[in-house]
Task: inverse folding
């Protein structure tokens, strides 16, 4: 293999000196540094934010040799060396206020060893201000400041309002030092997964230019289809050979699995770089982004707010909601969107409304697999095998085993965890049938108190009606009265019409009857 893929490598200098593969983003870097001083970028985890910070750091250190052959080499003439202040909040588990204060104190202490300190600088913000001033005075050049994952403490405290408030107050004052030292600062760049709005850590730093939904910078992290074809054409051909697929099939599968991120309306689609690089490294498709872990706070948010998962696939919202995460909010969608599990699918320009959805198959299937053990009576290890068994039962016409397995998914759910029984049933069914739908054709519809579902395999068609309060007979009668099976009247496959009812007493599927 001719390329060394930089999987998990976030240091620009290491990538350039050790000959790792790199897609040139430096024209956008140059455009940014020449058009402003204070920037913020929100992107999901594993999207290259830390590498972007490292690239900017190398640029402001004047390390021209690292940029040989890249676009910025022809654009930049000066290559001035600036003092760098880099804060990385990635490295700590934030369980209390001391954990945040410790990492800030440790960072400041290292800088103070270089630039000195004053006895009057007793608080974290005062120490930060003093360091910025002395760094400028001692070098004669203004300072470049980088904050990587500024929001990690806030994210880990979601659901703990008191701790989140403490983190917010500490960070607000700390980041506020940046604004008061404007004359000493050449450039500042903050990254994170989310943008906390309203009473946020940014209220004291309101001079940030937010690039998160700026079309000019949509591709500053991640890969576009053009970049893949310009840089990885040989790799695509090799992947096709290894997977015994045609070139067109491989391109289509790569797009289905990993493309589809839109960080601004009507913009080019962005591929998840971590998943793409892993696919080429291993020469096979996989759920690479999900293997690195999904934060459980997302599930806690969904469950705490009794969210209807069926709405997630086609939720509508506006820019104000998308752009801010309010810790006291009852809407989990901004966090889920900014974490990369939903993306912009459509935009209604007239009303300024965004339609969201899952970006690609990796995210949709991975998120459903991740959610299943939190909602149903199964565990992380067993749930993939359960889905496999569901699919086999559907494909073989064994609906009796299928419904008995489905019954087991509702068993032993603690009553106190289900404030809304109907929503709980709907969420479990939605996850199960979403996952089955990756292997057979599935259509799922819900309305008040009922769910109708169509599953199609090569040999069978199942038309099902679930009654959340009512009888299995009523459910079957509704299939016939509403002519749900009509579209399949001339289809040669065997058709099953199945009425199913839930019992609020047993909190489970009670009966099913088949016609």
Result:
């Amino acid at each position: 293999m001719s390329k060394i893929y930089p999987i998990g490598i976030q240091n620009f200098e290491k990538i350039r000196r050790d000959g790792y593969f790199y897609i040139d983003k430096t024209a956008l870097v140059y455009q940014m540094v020449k058009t402003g001083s204070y920037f913020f970028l929100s992107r999901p985890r594993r999207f290259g934010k830390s590498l972007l910070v490292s690239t900017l750091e190398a640029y402001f250190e004047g390390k021209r040799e690292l940029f040989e052959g890249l676009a910025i080499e022809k654009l930049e003439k000066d290559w001035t060396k600036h003092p760098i202040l880099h804060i990385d909040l990635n490295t700590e588990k934030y369980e209390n206020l001391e954990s945040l204060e410790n990492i800030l104190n440790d960072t400041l202490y290292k800088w103070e060893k270089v630039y000195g300190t004053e006895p009057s600088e007793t608080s974290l913000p005062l120490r930060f201000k003093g360091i910025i001033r002395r760094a400028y005075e001692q070098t004669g050049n203004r300072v470049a400041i980088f904050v990587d994952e500024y929001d990690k403490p806030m994210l880990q405290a979601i659901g703990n309002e008191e701790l989140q408030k403490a983190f917010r107050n500490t960070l607000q004052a700390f980041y506020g030092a940046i604004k008061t030292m404007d004359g000493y600062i050449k450039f500042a760049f903050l990254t994170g997964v989310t943008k906390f709005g309203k009473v946020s850590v940014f209220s004291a730093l309101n001079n940030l230019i937010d690039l998160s939904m700026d079309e000019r910078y949509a591709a500053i992290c991640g890969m576009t289809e053009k970049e893949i074809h310009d840089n990885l054409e040989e790799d695509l051909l090799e992947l096709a050979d290894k997977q015994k697929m045609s070139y067109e099939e491989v391109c289509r599968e790569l797009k289905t699995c990993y493309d589809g991120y839109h960080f601004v309306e009507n913009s080019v689609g962005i591929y998840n770089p971590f998943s793409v690089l892993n696919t080429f490294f291993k020469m096979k498709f996989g759920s690479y982004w999900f293997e690195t872990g999904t934060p459980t706070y997302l599930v806690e948010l969904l469950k705490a707010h009794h969210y209807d998962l069926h709405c997630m696939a086609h939720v509508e919202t506006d820019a104000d909601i998308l752009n801010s995460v309010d810790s006291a909010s009852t809407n989990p969608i901004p966090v889920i969107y900014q974490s990369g599990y939903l993306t912009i699918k459509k935009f209604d320009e007239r009303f300024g409304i965004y339609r969201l959805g899952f970006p690609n198959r990796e995210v949709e299937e991975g998120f459903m697999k991740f959610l299943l053990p939190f909602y149903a009576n199964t565990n992380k290890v067993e749930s993939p095998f359960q889905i496999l068994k569901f699919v086999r039962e559907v494909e073989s016409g064994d609906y009796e085993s299928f419904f008995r397995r489905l019954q087991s998914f509702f068993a032993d759910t603690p009553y106190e965890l289900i404030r809304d029984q109907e929503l709980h049933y709907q969420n479990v069914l939605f996850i199960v049938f979403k996952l089955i739908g990756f292997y057979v054709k599935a259509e799922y519809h819900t309305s008040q108190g009922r769910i109708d579902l169509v599953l199609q395999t090569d040999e069978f068609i199942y038309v099902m009606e679930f009654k959340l309060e009512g009888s299995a007979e009523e459910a079957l009668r509704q299939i016939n009265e509403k002519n749900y099976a009509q579209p399949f009247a001339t289809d040669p496959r065997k058709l099953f019409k199945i009425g199913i009812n839930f019992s609020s007493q047993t909190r489970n599927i009670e009966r099913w009857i088949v016609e």
Remarks:
- The chain is about 45% helix and 15% strand.
- Residues 38 and 461 are 58 Å apart (CA to CA).
